[in-house]
Design a protein that fits this description.
The protein has 17 helices and 5 strands. It is globular, with a radius of gyration of 24 Å. The protein folds into 2 domains: about 1-195, Preprotein translocase SecY subunit (Orthogonal Bundle), CATH 1.10.3370; about 200-400, SecY subunit domain (Preprotein translocase SecY subunit). Helix 5 crosses helix 6 and helix 6 crosses helix 7. The strands form 2 sheets. Strands 4-1-5 form a 3-stranded antiparallel sheet. It has a two-stranded antiparallel sheet with strand order 2-3. Strand 2 (about 245-250) and strand 3 form a beta hairpin. The model has no long low-confidence stretch (mean pLDDT about 80). By secondary structure, the chain is mostly helical. InterPro entries: SecY, SecY/SEC61-alpha, SecY_CS, SecY_dom_sf.
Length: about 425
């Protein structure tokens, strides 16, 4: 392994890309600790030391910002607005024919969709920045009575919102620079760094509060979970495809055999993000509808506080599991079009052995997708429940590092990045990075 890493750094072009990526990551992490203008950094640290934010409604978003949101820093919004914008643009392809046509136009259409994603990211960033500044001003963000924003004049508030939105644009630009001049997959690498930044603190907290036995057990659970995620993420159903020979002028084309790789987890981590976001809404509504002193809590608020506040109630876990399964089928349905795949195969003379071209091929692909999606949805549901189960059985905090979106994203991005580095190594050496 060390010899392979040494070969990477002995390659000048690849070494330059890796150091460039590390430099961008350093800038990204430094920005996570620079407080936004108008924020009292000392007061923020006092509120975080009280520990009232643990398990709050925004802990999920805080994970994607690498802890920057609860620090109320210039990168408080993190990469989340871009993720949301990219998902929305992808979903709109099903609703808006214009977007679907742009997807089929190749690089020019993709560039146009990327531009739409950037505009939507800024719009969502403005909305999120306004919400965070409002909650920081009222003290609801950190559940703290201390004044986080001492001067809440209009000019200071507008400057804070402008700074947070500018931070979103800068993060988006940093990710694109990694994609163009670094090792590639820039946005995913920034997400990887944001999530990984919380691992040392979470493991240290488990060691100090639970002891070395629970620490070793958590580490063992993490290794088993990582091995399971790697196994499933690499698993795929290969549908064989045979292309008939065609005569084009004096040349004979086709006659080759290939396959359609259908992954067990085609939806990736998107269903877990959808389910987490939907189940976070009740807690957010409860925070904005706190009763006045002396007033009784209504039955709806009581229900939300009892079942959806901590994330460890069986009702919450069952809802989370079922919604993950639902969103897995939903996302796979809108991203994989059997009709389009069957039509493309027919145009180029391809067919699945023992399956007729056209409508029978479409039905066969739909059947395969439905069978593959079921175990994939169960796998996503169980992985997403790991931190909640650990909270109940092991007594660890909600910052449990292994499980859910964190492990899915980190393992997926890690595998993709290693493959990209290996492909670049194979262009220069026969051995590559992996053997």
């Amino acid at each position: 392994m060390f010899s392979a890493i040494a070969r990477v750094f002995r390659t000048p072009d690849l070494r330059r890309k890796i150091w460039f990526t590390i430099g961008i990551i350093a800038i990204y992490r430094i920005g996570a600790f620079i407080p936004a203008p108008g924020v009292d950094y000392g007061t923020v640290q006092q509120c975080l030391a009280l520990g009232n934010t643990e398990g709050g409604a925004y802990s999920f978003v805080n994970m994607f910002s690498g802890g920057a949101m609860l620090q109320v820093s210039i990168f408080a919004l993190g990469i989340m607005p871009y993720i949301t914008a990219a998902i929305i643009v992808q979903l709109l392809r099903v609703v808006i024919p214009r977007f679907e046509n742009l997807q089929r136009e190749g690089p020019q259409g993709q560039a146009k969709l990327t531009q739409y994603t950037r505009y939507l990211t800024i719009a969502l960033g403005t909305l999120n920045a306004t919400t965070i500044v409002t909650m920081a001003r009222s003290g609801a963000l950190l559940s703290c009575d201390l004044p986080i924003v001492p001067d809440d004049s209009l000019g200071v508030i507008l400057l804070m919102i402008l700074t947070l939105v500018t931070g979103v644009a800068l993060i988006m630009w940093l990710g694109e620079q990694i994609t163009e001049r670094g090792v590639g997959n820039g946005m995913s690498i920034l997400i990887f760094v944001s999530i990984g930044a919380g691992f040392p603190g979470a493991m240290g907290e488990i060691w100090s509060t639970q002891g070395w036995r629970i620490f070793a057990l958590v580490l063992l659970i993490g290794l088993v979970a990582i091995a399971a995620v790697v196994f499933v993420e690499q698993s795929q159903r290969r549908v064989p495809v045979q292309y008939a020979k065609r005569q084009v002028g004096r040349r004979t084309l086709g006659g080759s055999s290939t396959y359609i790789p259908i992954k067990v987890n085609m939806a990736g981590v998107i269903p877990v993000i959808f389910a987490s976001s939907v189940l976070t809404l009740p807690s957010v509504i409860a925070q904005f509808n706190q009763p006045a002193p002396g007033e009784d809590v209504g039955p709806v608020m009581q229900f939300i506080q009892q079942y959806f506040s901590g994330g460890t109630h069986p009702v919450y876990m069952i809802c989370f599991f079922l919604m993950t399964i639902f969103f897995t089928y939903f996302y796979v349905t809108i991203t994989f079009n059997p009709n389009e795949v069957a039509e493309n195969m027919r145009k180029f003379g391809g067919f699945i052995p023992s399956v007729r071209a056209g409508r029978p091929t479409e039905r066969y692909l739909s059947y395969v997708i439905s069978r593959i999606t079921f175990p994939g949805s169960l796998y996503l549901g169980f992985i997403a429940l790991i931190p909640m189960i650990a909270m109940v059985l092991l007594g660890v905090s909600q910052s449990f590092p292994f499980g859910g979106t964190s492990i899915l994203i980190m393992v997926g991005v890690g595998l993709t990045t290693v493959k990209q580095i290996n492909a670049q190594m194979e262009q220069r050496n026969y051995e590559g990075l992996l053997r």
